[in-house]
């Protein structure tokens, strides 16, 4: 019978301590690789989310900016604006309404291109509404559109004569510029649009 000396003298195997040390090192390496990959995925998702917010803001601002640039003087119709909305007369050069075909010729059931319209933007209950009412049309056709994205919208108006921005405008004359602030996804996007004064 052989005597036990307290250690494995077989050179072909691993001791329990060697296995535990190897397993610990392996666990640390795998955990650090997982943490690195996970942080990369989170950064990629956040980047895509930010791009999406920026795209929504850009589309909304382009729509509002185009309408403001097309604002027009028309008799005693006022350009009216507050911090959460605005209303003015503009030349709408977009194709509005829906089209349907009779044969191959589309028939318009709404606003034709290049017509004078009253354009209103109103921010309420976490949505931005765009309301378009044609001024020259035999029947009243109102187009309402919800602009997706903004969680908060504010407008301010530049009066060069006074040299300041104000949160309210009500005048037959157009403001020198309109500043638009949109908050989407916790980020604020701002643009300034000069009117066709």
Description:
The protein is rod-shaped, with a radius of gyration of 32 Å. By secondary structure, the protein is an alpha+beta fold. It is 27% helix and 37% strand.
Please state the CA-atom Rg, rounded to the nearest Å: 32 Å
What class would the helix/strand composition place it in?
Answer: alpha+beta
Tell me the strand percentage band: 35-45%
The overall pLDDT, averaged over residues, is 81
User: What is the number of domains?
Assistant: 1
Gross morphology: rod-shaped
List keywords for this structure.
about 200 residues, alpha+beta, six-stranded antiparallel β-sheet, four-stranded antiparallel β-sheet, about 25% helix
List the SSEs and their pairings.
Blueprint lengths: L15 H54 L9 E4 L2 E8 L6 E4 L2 E4 L6 E10 L2 E8 L8 E5 L4 E8 L4 E3 L2 E3 L5 E8 L2 E8 L3
Antiparallel strand pairs: 1-2, 1-10, 2-5, 3-4, 5-6, 6-7, 8-9, 8-11, 11-12
What's the short version?
The chain has 197 residues and is an alpha+beta fold. It has one helix spanning 16-69; strands at 79-82, 85-92, 99-102, 105-108, 115-124, 127-134, 143-147, 152-159, 164-166, 169-171, 177-184, 187-194.
């Amino acid at each position: 019978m052989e005597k036990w000396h307290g250690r494995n003298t077989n050179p072909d195997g691993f001791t329990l301590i060697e296995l535990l040390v190897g397993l610990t090192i392996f666990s640390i390496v795998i955990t650090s690789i997982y943490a690195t990959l996970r942080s990369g995925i989170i950064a990629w998702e956040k980047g895509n989310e930010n791009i999406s917010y920026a795209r929504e803001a850009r589309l909304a601002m382009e729509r509002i900016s185009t309408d403001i640039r097309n604002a027009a003087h028309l008799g005693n119709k006022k350009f009216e604006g507050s911090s959460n909305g605005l209303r003015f007369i503009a030349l709408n050069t977009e194709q509005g309404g829906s089209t349907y075909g009779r044969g191959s010729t589309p028939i318009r059931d709404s606003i034709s291109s290049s017509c004078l319209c009253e354009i209103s933007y109103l921010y309420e209950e976490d949505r931005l509404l765009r309301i378009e009412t044609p001024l020259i049309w035999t029947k009243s056709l109102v187009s309402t559109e919800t602009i997706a994205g903004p969680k908060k919208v504010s407008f301010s108006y530049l009066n060069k004569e006074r040299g300041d921005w104000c949160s309210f405008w009500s005048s037959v004359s157009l403001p020198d510029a309109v500043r638009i602030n949109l908050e989407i996804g916790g980020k604020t996007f701002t643009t300034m649009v000069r009117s066709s004064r």
